[in-house]
Amino acid sequence: MPVQHTTAKTPGVPAFPGGGMMRLPVPATMAGIHITDIEAAINYWRQRTPSPDGFSLEPAVRALAEVYALMVYHHESLADEFSIPATAYAAWFAWYETTPDTPCIAICSTSQGDETCKGCGRSFAEVQYWTEMRPAEKRLTWQRISLQRDSWRFNRYAERAAESRSVP
Q: What pTM value is reported for the model?
């Protein structure tokens, strides 16, 4: 687990031996909701429940827009999934339910011993624990493999699918 170094400078709290550095374990990646997912959820709800007057926002859009505005203001790319308002999380989760659950293309090289699947780009651990992962963790995995674009999901099979659509 990565280590975060902090200096103990709180009044009344003694410094730690060896220079006052305290080691705190922190998770390797914080599971959060990425700002692009918030944008996609806003667009989903704007399309599903358009403004009646072109100005006011429906409740789901308003809740997500408030989270989005705070993320932009604070220059954050991830929103903590456990601290966003319940209405915003519910609106995001309703959008999430419309997205594909797994990036699997049914060609799993992790079953042959690869640490990373050549088919979908997930790690062995991500493939094994996918059903136990929270939605925000799954979306971060989707984001990572979509940005990397080096698995067969994004090249060989995507190209073949496009070719088969263009052939009369």
A: 0.69
AA identity, residue 127: V
**Structure tokens belonging to residue 14:** 């003694």
Quick one: tokens of 45? Answer: 């709800």
- Which residue's entry shows tokens 């979509």? 146
- Beta pairing partners, 33: 79
**String of b and e for 64-76 (b: at least 16 CB within 10 Å)?**
bbebbeebeeeee
State which amino acid sits at residue 58.
E
Residue closest to 6 by CA, chosen among 16, 87, 155 = 16
| 40-66 pLDDT tens trace | 999 999 999 999 898 899 999 999 999
Asked if 139 and 37 touch (Cβ cutoff 8 Å), the reply is: yes
